[in-house]
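Treating backbone geometry as a discrete language has practical consequences that deserve illustration. Part of our work consisted of pairing the sequence of a single chain with a tokenised description of its backbone. What the numbers capture is local backbone geometry rather than side-chain detail. For completeness, the protein is quoted in full, as a sequence line and a line of structure tokens:
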Amino acid sequence: MIEQTYATLELDDIQRGVLSPRPTPYAATYILFRIDDRAHGRELMRRASEVVTAATDSMSPLGETWVSIALTYQGLRALGVPQESLDTFAWEFRQGMAARANTLGDSGQSGPDNWEPPLGTPDVHVVLVALAPDGAQLEAAVDRARPAFRHLHGVVQIWRQDCYALPTETEPFGYRDGISHPAVEGSGIAGSNPLEAPLKAGEFVLGYRDELGGVQTPQPEVLGRNGTYVAFRKLHQRVAAFRRYLKDSSAGPEDEELLAAKLIGRWRSGAPLALSPLRDDPVLGADPHRNNRFLYEQDDPAGFTTPPGCHIRRANPRDAAVAGAPRLHRMIRRGTVYGPPLPEGVLEDDGSDRGLMFTFIGAHLGRQFEFVQSQWMNDGVFFGAGDARDPIVGAGDGTGEFTIPRRPVPRRLPPLPRFVVTRGGEYCFMPGLSALRWLGDLED
């Protein structure tokens, strides 16, 4: 029997970007660096330890603004971390996201050969992320962080992606985003679903007990403890194709909105089908205290209200026994929009690049991010649907099926094309503040 212990997190040593939900509205930026000079890279780590925001700063004058630093496996190597230490990191992290493309469903147009450079290449060493409630505060945060890399000629900025909340506060397909967030034991941050018990800290932060009672920590402990793994993904969204599919597959405007809700599991306002099955309820959708308060097993085990194959039920089956042990696959997810919105009603692509920068945070890359991608997003065996893929983010090829449970006859939709294309991504390690200082003090 696993001993039940309550974690006391060392919040002053954990980067705030690990645990805090993003603000709404928001502005964000992702800046990638290459380390050409080891000494300058180490100096960047020393400076970064004074710039990144700790989890204890949630009540600071910065408010909902923070800066985070993460490193790829190649970045740790560039800093001169000993190989015996590197070998203690998760093997998925050591391989890198591009090498894991087949497992993740990144094939064809989503394959690494088509990724936006330098994503997925050995040149990506450091990822700086800044998040704020608006553009002015975001640039102020970047300005505060700039001394960390200014005048370090051996650290080269190689890519930047800016993100801003759309005026509608939705993602590009038109759905309210950023609703679901798990409670992490010891964090002091409430989850968005009060019916879900807080998860063990070790599911998200290295060095603490996880749901299985184990403790995962890369070595030495000063490097691994209070860190986490992060999967960054740039996902291009084919908004016009999605709109055309809804229009062509529905009997009219009302049916189109119902179909949109059945594919995701929520109405576009954010109201979940589980709580508002027959019609949209924008007031419910906008209420953060109610719009995620539901389970499936007792009220809707067969999915007549929220289809088993819809996006939110795949991404988080909650209490569904058919999914095995959903708590072992929970992640912290954050999405930030990039690119201009496609004007309302437009059904033809305008050539603009738009979509989401997605961040997945967890202490177990294999059984969290990769399991969800391979088993829940790109397969349907866990709920009896064969190889059916997620209708929104799955690796669709124009042959995939989606069935809406309905009495007396289920509703089968036309084959699903690919609506989301991976433009690149990286597996990263987000160290604790002590680890950043340790990296800065490394010697050859």
Observations:
- The chain has a mean pLDDT of 94.
- The radius of gyration is 21 Å.
- DSSP finds 14 helices and ten strands in the chain.
- The first strand starts at residue 27 and ends at 35.
